[in-house]
């Protein structure tokens, strides 16, 4: 007797939706609290707190705009369930094969058939997500002063993203299908090796070739800020090759900073909005000190290795079920295309994915505390506290967070927890 794979997947999707909605309701209650957490009283400007409450409620909960998050999630779950329950995926797979035949190509060629299928999925996903993206960007983000992009820039970015998908997708899909057909008993190893090589390639190409298609990167001008960052990097033997400012303000007033690069070719990128918002250079340097803490403590290496292990285990699981006729038939397929097998497998291991993501969140939150402590040991404790508060205020991030919601969704600890950790006794020796 065939196992009810499809019914199991649908049941878990519904239970997960109910659970996440419950967490959203809990967070809704936290956002509605009229006062700051005790630890933030006198630290966060009251006006910024009120604005962050309004932004959080508007973005996620409170009118269509007031129920934007709930509407989006409800529409998404209904569509996902309908697609699976009514057999739309196998129907669309058949139609994509018919389309290939109509234009004179060989529908028996799995690579061509798969690309036709993915092309239709791309069009469908863009059409269904576009109204929500437009509303989020030009209504909610604009209402709270974050959106800076024009409608022309929005659609230009969308067009560039689609073009990149069309350019990069076919060779990757062709390679995956070929590997699966020829992989034999070592398929999991070959799939992992291919994705490992692809991830290394993209980590190198993205900042150099892809990111500049969307943003302008310019060297940070000479001055005190550049000198302080270079001095800090040199003191830690961080191989800083380039220090950039990215024009994030052309799209949003949200701020951030990050670093990237392998081995002796490290680069740091500052959002121009971060420089504008943090008038004190030491606050920016403290934020960079936190990021360098991740590097010095090898958090990026540990994270990369963990991802590779999980990727290998995932491909190993896929190889165990890829030839299961019962699994494919449960989802309405009489054939066993490679891409469909990957999609079905992803659906069947959703519970595992969520447990793994929860575990990774716990680890990355611990890493954040460690990086904060590292910056504090460098003597930037007070500056980091001020910088974190400034980023929280300027980005209108939630000041009150429900502990369950935070543990499930946040990869970074809430501001209250980070400030509390930074105020440990040894902070008295600083600055």
Automatic annotation (TrEMBL):
Gene: FACE1
Compartment list: Endoplasmic reticulum membrane
An individual GO BP term: CAAX-box protein processing
Keywords, alphabetical: Endoplasmic reticulum, Hydrolase, Membrane, Metal-binding, Metalloprotease, Protease, Transmembrane, Transmembrane helix, Zinc
Name the UniProt record assigns to this protein: CAAX prenyl protease
Binding site for Zn(2+): 290, 294, 368
Top-rank taxon, per record: Eukaryota
Species of origin: Apostasia shenzhenica
Family as reported in the entry's similarity comment: Belongs to the peptidase M48A family.
UniProt domain Peptidase M48: residue ranges: 220-425
Reactions that this protein is recorded to catalyse: Hydrolyzes the peptide bond -P2-(S-farnesyl or geranylgeranyl)C-P1'-P2'-P3'-COOH where P1' and P2' are amino acids with aliphatic side chains and P3' is any C-terminal residue
Gene Ontology cellular-component annotations: endoplasmic reticulum membrane
Top-level EC class as recorded in UniProt: hydrolase
Function in brief: Proteolytically removes the C-terminal three residues of farnesylated proteins.
Cofactor note: Binds 1 zinc ion per subunit.
Residues the record marks as active site: 291, 372
Listed cofactors: Zn(2+)
Any one GO molecular function term: metalloendopeptidase activity
């Amino acid at each position: 007797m065939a196992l009810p794979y499809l019914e199991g997947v649908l049941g878990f999707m519904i239970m997960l939706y109910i659970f996440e909605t419950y967490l959203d309701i809990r967070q809704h209650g936290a956002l509605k609290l009229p006062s700051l957490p005790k630890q933030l009283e006198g630290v966060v400007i009251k006006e910024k707190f009120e604005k962050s409450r309004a932004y959080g409620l508007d973005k996620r909960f409170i009118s269509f705009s007031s129920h934007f998050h709930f509407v989006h999630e409800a529409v998404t779950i209904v569509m996902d369930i309908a697609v699976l329950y009514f057999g739309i995926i196998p129907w669309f797979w058949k139609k994509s094969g018919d389309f290939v035949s109509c234009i004179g190509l060989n529908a028996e060629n799995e690579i061509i058939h798969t690309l036709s299928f993915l092309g239709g999925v791309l069009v469908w996903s863009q059409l269904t997500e576009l109204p929500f993206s437009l509303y989020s960007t030009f209504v909610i983000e604009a209402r709270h002063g974050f959106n800076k992009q024009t409608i022309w820039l929005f659609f230009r970015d969308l067009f560039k993203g689609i073009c990149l998908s069309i350019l990069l997708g076919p060779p990757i899909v062709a390679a995956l299908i070929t590997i699966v057909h020829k992989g034999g008993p070592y398929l999991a190893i070959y799939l992992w090796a291919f994705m490992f090589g692809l991830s290394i390639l993209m980590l190198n190409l993205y900042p150099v070739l892809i990111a500049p298609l969307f943003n302008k990167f310019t060297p940070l001008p000479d001055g005190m800020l550049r000198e302080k960052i270079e001095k800090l990097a040199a003191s830690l033997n961080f191989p800083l090759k380039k220090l950039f400012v990215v024009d994030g303000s052309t799209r949003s007033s949200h701020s951030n900073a990050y670093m990237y690069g392998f081995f002796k070719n490290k680069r740091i990128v500052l959002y121009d909005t971060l420089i504008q918002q943090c008038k004190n250079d030491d606050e920016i340097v403290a934020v960079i000190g936190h990021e360098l803490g991740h590097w010095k403590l090898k958090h990026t290496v540990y994270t990369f290795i963990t991802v590779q292990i999980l990727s290998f285990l995932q491909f190993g699981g896929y190889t165990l079920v890829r030839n299961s006729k019962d699994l494919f038939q449960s989802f309405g397929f009489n054939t066993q295309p490679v891409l469909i097998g990957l999609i079905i497998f992803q659906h069947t291991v959703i519970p595992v994915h969520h447990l793994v993501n929860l575990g990774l969140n716990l680890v990355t939150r611990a890493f954040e505390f460690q990086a904060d402590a590292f910056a504090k040991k460098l003597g930037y404790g007070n500056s980091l506290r001020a910088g974190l508060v400034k980023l929280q205020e300027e980005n209108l991030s939630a000041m009150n967070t429900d502990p369950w919601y935070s543990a499930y969704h946040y990869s970074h600890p809430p501001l209250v927890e980070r400030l509390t950790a930074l105020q440990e006794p040894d902070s008295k020796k600083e600055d």
